[in-house]
Write a structure and sequence with these properties.
mainly beta; Neuraminidase; 5-stranded antiparallel β-sheet; 4-stranded antiparallel β-sheet; 3 helices
Length: 425
C-alpha cells in the first residue's frame, strides 16, 4: 500500500513538472483605468460613445471642448495598452457624438457642430487625418438642431439616427435616414412629438424600424416607427410623468424586441428601469423598477448581458460618494442586483460595453480632472487575435508618436477563474 502511494505521489509530481507554469497558474490581470485624453485643456471627453470592434478593441468618439473638435480614440488591443486619439472634425466642437462601426471596422459618427447635424465617415479604423468624410445632414436655419444624436447602422449599413430640434421651427424629435451606406442623400422626418426633446436613445427592431426612447417636456416617452425612415410611426407612449424625468435615458431591445431602458427620475432622485412586456409598450404592458441607492445619479448607460439581464453604469454624484458605478441585475426583471464601484471619481457621461466574456468596458468623462477615461476588465483573454496589428499609436493630439502605458492605474482585484460573473453575481 505504501509503495502504491509513493508511486502515485511520484507520478503527480512528475506531471506537474512537465506542465508549463503558465498553464498551471495563468496570471490574473486586474482591471485597469486609463486616461486616454487630457490634452492639457478643459472638458476633454464629454459625451463619449464606446464600441468594441471585432477584436474587442475599444473605439471611442467624444467631444474636446477646449480643442473645439470631435475626436476618436482607437485602442490597439483590448486592454488599450497603446492608443491613438485623432481629430475627426476640428471645424468646431463636436457634441452629442454617437458612434457605430461598419462590418469592416470603420467608424461612422453622428454629432452636432454649432447648430447643425453632421455625419463623419472614416476610411481607416482610427480615423487618421485625411481619411474622414463629413456630411451635413440637417442645417435648418433659425434654430438649433442635432442635439442628443443616437446612431444605428441597418443591415445594409445605412446610417439612421434620432436627434432633437430644440429651437426655431419644427421643434421635436427627428430621424435622419440615409439612402445608402455612403449617405449620398438623406431623408428627414419629424416623429410625431412637437415638444422640446432631450436625451434620445434609438435601436432598430427586427424589421429595421427605429424604436426611440427620449425625454420631452420632462416626461419619459417611447415611440416605434413602422418604416425605416420613420415616415410612419405609432403614437408615442408617455412612460413616466412629472418633473425632470428621463435624464440620460439609455435604451436596449431584448432578444424578443422588447424595450428596456434606464434613466434618471428627478422627482424621486433615483434611477429607474423600464421593462416593456410588448413591443409597443402601451399602458398596462410595462412596469417601472426603482433601483436602490441611486439618488443624485446621472450618466446612465445600459446593455443587456448574454442572458438578457440589464447591466448599466452611472455616476453617483452624492458628496459622500462621487463614484463611477456598475449595477448588474440578477434577472431580466432586476428583482435583485449587485452594484460595484469601478472608479472613485466624480463622473459625467458614461458609455458601457460588455466584452466577449461579459466583462465591462466603460468610457467616461472624469469631471474633476476633465479628462476622457477608460475602465477595462480584460481578465478573460477571450478576444480573438487580429490578423495584423491594429491602428497607429499616437498622442492625444493626433501627432502620431507612441503613448506610454505608464498612466495605468490598477483597480479592483479580478475574481477567481472559478467565479465568473454569470456564476457568482
Amino acid at each position: 500500500m505504501a509503495r502504491r502511494l509513493l508511486l502515485l505521489l511520484t507520478f503527480v509530481l512528475l506531471t506537474a513538472l512537465l506542465i508549463p507554469s503558465d498553464t498551471l497558474a495563468a496570471p490574473l490581470r486586474a482591471p485597469v483605468v486609463r486616461t486616454l485624453d487630457g490634452s492639457g485643456g478643459l472638458n476633454v471627453g464629454i459625451g463619449p460613445s464606446l464600441v468594441l470592434d471585432a477584436y474587442q478593441r475599444p473605439v471611442i468618439a467624444y467631444s474636446d471642448t477646449s480643442g473645439t473638435a470631435l475626436k476618436l480614440a482607437y485602442c490597439d488591443d483590448p486592454e488599450c495598452s497603446t492608443w491613438v486619439a485623432n481629430k475627426v472634425d476640428d471645424a468646431g466642437t463636436g457634441s452629442y457624438a454617437s458612434l457605430q462601426l461598419t462590418s469592416a471596422g470603420l467608424p461612422v459618427i453622428s454629432y452636432r457642430r454649432g447648430n447643425n447635424l453632421y455625419l463623419a465617415m472614416c476610411a481607416t479604423p482610427a480615423c487618421e487625418p485625411g481619411s474622414v468624410t463629413v456630411k451635413t445632414l440637417d442645417n435648418r436655419t433659425g434654430g438649433t438642431v442635432g442635439g442628443y444624436t443616437s446612431l444605428q447602422l441597418d443591415a445594409n449599413e445605412r446610417p439612421i439616427l434620432s436627434y432633437s430640434r430644440t429651437a426655431g421651427t419644427n421643434v421635436g424629435l427627428w430621424v435622419a435616414y440615409c439612402s445608402d451606406a455612403d449617405c449620398a442623400s438623406v431623408t428627414l422626418n419629424r416623429v410625431g412629438d412637437t415638444a422640446g426633446v432631450n436625451y434620445t436613445s434609438m435601436k432598430l427592431n427586427s424589421s429595421g424600424n427605429p424604436v426611440i426612447a427620449y425625454e420631452a417636456a420632462s416626461n419619459v416617452r417611447l415611440v416605434t416607427c413602422t418604416a425605416p425612415d420613420c415616415g410612419t410611426f405609432n403614437a408615442f407612449q408617455i412612460i413616466d410623468t412629472g418633473g425632470q424625468n428621463g435624464g440620460d435615458i439609455s435604451l436596449q431591445l431584448d432578444a424578443s424586441g422588447l424595450p428596456r431602458a434606464v434613466y434618471y427620475n428627478g422627482d424621486s432622485n433615483e434611477i429607474r428601469l423600464l421593462l416593456c412586456s410588448t413591443a409597443a409598450c402601451t399602458s398596462g404592458n410595462r412596469s417601472l423598477v426603482s433601483l436602490p441607492d441611486t439618488s443624485l445619479s446621472n450618466a446612465t448607460s445600459l446593455v443587456l448581458d448574454g442572458s438578457g439581464n440589464p447591466v448599466f453604469t452611472y455616476g453617483d454624484l452624492r458628496s459622500t460618494a462621487n463614484q463611477l458605478k456598475l449595477t448588474r441585475c440578477s434577472d431580466a426583471s432586476c428583482s435583485a442586483s449587485l452594484t460595484t464601484v469601478l472608479d472613485p471619481v466624480r463622473t459625467f457621461s458614461t458609455s458601457l460595453a460588455l466584452d466577449c466574456a461579459g466583462n465591462p468596458v466603460v468610457a467616461y468623462y472624469a469631471a474633476i480632472a476633465q479628462d476622457l477615461k477608460l475602465y477595462v476588465d480584460d481578465s478573460s483573454g477571450c478576444a480573438p487575435v487580429p490578423p495584423t496589428p491594429g491602428g497607429s499609436s499616437g498622442n492625444a493630439d493626433g501627432s502620431g508618436s507612441s503613448v506610454s502605458q505608464s498612466a495605468n492605474t490598477p483597480m479592483l482585484p479580478v475574481a477567481s477563474p472559478a467565479c465568473s460573473w454569470a456564476a457568482c453575481w
